[in-house]
Amino acid sequence: xxxxxxxxxxxxxxxxxxxxxxxxxxxxxxxxxxxxxxxxxxxxxxxxxxxxxxxxxxxxxxxxxxxxxxxxxxxxxxxxxxxxxxxxxxxxxxxxxxxxxxxxxxxxxxxxxxxxxxxxxxxxxxxxxxxxxxxxxxxxxxxxxxxxxxxxxxxxxxxxxxxxxxxxxxxxxxxxxxxxxxxxxxxxxxxxxxxxxxxxxxxxxxxxxxxxxxxxxxxxxxxxxxxxxxxxxxxxxxxxxxxxxxxxxxxxxxxxxxxxxxxxxxxxxxxxxxxxxxxxxxxxxxxxxxxxxxxxxxxxxxxxxxxxxxxxxxxxxxxxxxxxxxxxxxxxxxxxxxxxxxxxxxxxxxxxxxxxxxxxxxxxxxxxxxxxxxxxxxxxxxxxxxxxxxxxxxxxxxxxxxxxxxxxxxxxxxxxxxxxxxxxxxxxxxxxxxxxxxxxxxx
Amino acid sequence: xxxxxxxxxxxxxxxxxxxxxxxxxxxxxxxxxxxxxxxxxxxxxxxxxxxxxxxxxxxxxxxxxxxxxxxxxxxxxxxxxxxxxxxxxxxxxxxxxxxxxxxxxxxxxxxxxxxxxxxxxxxxxxxxxxxxxxxxxxxxxxxxxxxxxxxxxxxxxxxxxxxxxxxxxxxxxxxxxxxxxxxxxxxxxxxxxxxxxxxxxxxxxxxxxxxxxxxxxxxxxxxxxxxxxxxxxxxxxxxx
Lengths: 443, 240
Ligand SMILES: Nc1ncnc2c1ncn2[C@@H]1O[C@H](COP(=O)(O)OP(=O)(O)OP(=O)(O)O)[C@@H](O)[C@H]1O
Ligand SMILES: [Mg+2]
Fold this sequence. Notes:
The structure holds two protein chains of two kinds. By secondary structure, chain A is of the alpha/beta class. Chain A has ten helices and 23 strands.
């Protein structure tokens, strides 16, 4: 039996998926439970209109490319795509390890020998589930299927993704990266990422995403779970440039134990609709989190993002910062949520969202939800919405920059607090995307 | 031969006619001065020439090296060699001074290697070494903004430089630096127009010609002594 390449979402399909992957029994049961939850859970009652997303017109599993050991063994088309994305180059120069996934399966993976020697595990999620039975104690424990419809869907049909385990005290000095590529029309991509950072360890993980444009809608619904144990540090960077037919509906959540630090850095440049609200639950005293988000909504896009910090221990701190740029008929929503539980005495939280509207039709909304159940807390909130100043634009043009160059520079400046935190190769890509969009818009 | 020629220029701002027939010509390698009471339209003239969209030219013409200037968008005027040092330069957050200047120099045809040499030199020339890591004009004091304009001018080496009050709010030492940079530029062939209220800067860079703008047109022309007379006696001199 093989996995049907395109399928209606049925119990038979989920069982076939699990058995073809050779999964342990617990995972098969988990998938079926998730499917049952999915069927009875309604679509989210907030945010973007999802009515055009046809869940019965998706390939829930696609494997157009077989896994290889060397870039050269990939089929020509996908090899050229990865070369254009400069993945092999980044692997050589800037990374400790790299995984690349096409549609449902990981097709390439590498890890530096010295990092492997430190005991770090960097594996495809499918393999890890089979090799390490203890993963059962973590898998979808941070985000249960009951959380929302797409978490449940993900749990039923997940495939691919990354498992990382960093042993106690091990600092991975150079980032690990995964790249997700959707290659098939109307495909669903559901990779699962689980990071367990043992006490005193540290890790920077980077995700990049892209897809060619097709007529029919595609769905990306990944899940990221991070467990940052005592005193560990995890930074999770995502830059997505999905094409404008992709629904990007993700779940990302971290648990931060005592004195652990979790940073989320997100750049959302593409997709038709994005719903993304990385969350950190600050479980131990002194835990901290920072959430930096940049969104660029162009014509017809709705980027509904946010950040959540849940303070459940004393002396915890959170900083949620967003910069949104909206062009054409684009739309951005930022939901900054801070919840301070009664036991989180001395907690500090700061939420800051700024939006730059480039056109009169552009729409934006910021929805801060600050809830403190103790008085011993410092909460700060700032929100601004502005337009590109004509004086600034003229000033730059009077120095010989074209309108597109000047716009791009001003917008880059606006997002620089976040851009500074994004790895260089992505920052360069991001500038390129901005400049191209202005050239198109201005003509 | 004049590099910038302005003939019968009429300009409206916010629907209000401000310039009503300005005639002016600037000579390469020469320093010129433009004086006139507050609100007489000096900045209007400079901004209209640079192509600020809020300033509408209703009549007249302006040419740079014999080519029509007024039909070009602002950045093409700059690329042809026109430069305006602003009376009130805006602050641009998150944009590094260096990155901005690199881009601007590239548009004036300076390669990266050339910039690597000219930029540190220009910083030293205007004693702005400490500004290398700064964002464009952000948090600059009034006088520092003027020096930043001069730094840009010095690097871009335009054919025509319109300097809108480069001396206002500037301390004695900085004034000397600014004046020296202007002189060096003029010696290199740039036609300079200094808009000012004070004869002081003109003592450092003697103008070959002084224009006085009032009531929307040039009402008086003369040598450096005209600037002095205005400095001493005010604009009554020309109204008599
Ligand atoms: N947007 C506007 N709407 C109406 N009038 C304007 C507008 N902008 C400028 N003006 C007017 O145009 C006139 C010329 O202004 P301009 O700034 O050119 O004067 P100036 O000679 O540079 O003065 P100063 O010496 O104070 O710098 C002034 O009377 C000013 O109030
Ligand atoms: Mg003025």
